[in-house]
Design brief:
alpha+beta
Amino acid sequence: MTLGTFTRKTLASLLLMAFGGWIVWLWLTLAGPTAGMSRFKTLEPLSIEGQAAAALPAGTVLYYDTGFAEGHSRYLAYFYHKGVIAQEALPKAFWPGQERISPLWLWNVDAEQAPAQTMTREDIVAAVKAGQLSRQELAAIVESLPR
């Protein structure tokens, strides 16, 4: 095999791989799980049913799935998770439409019930420099930090 033949074959292979990647991207964009779903960003936190302290923060992207005659709607959210999730396998559906979806309810969070905002490192440093924190308050903040 000559250098010219090797170069042509390598270039053709790279072009085919790039074209294949473009086809996969196009399929995921146009026919993926959220294709055709409208998406939006929440402007306020939403409380999750049955979870006292858990809430979706403002700015969470939700995908509108479907609306029901009863007046409520179903949305999808995607999360990243690192590590292994403790889980239980569910049986497969026997016929279409039997997905066994059991979504949780989301509720708007009242201003009085909104969880307190956590202080960032910059907030603490600015408060210490301004002399706004007492020694006891600073000690309480340090003790509450995860170890």
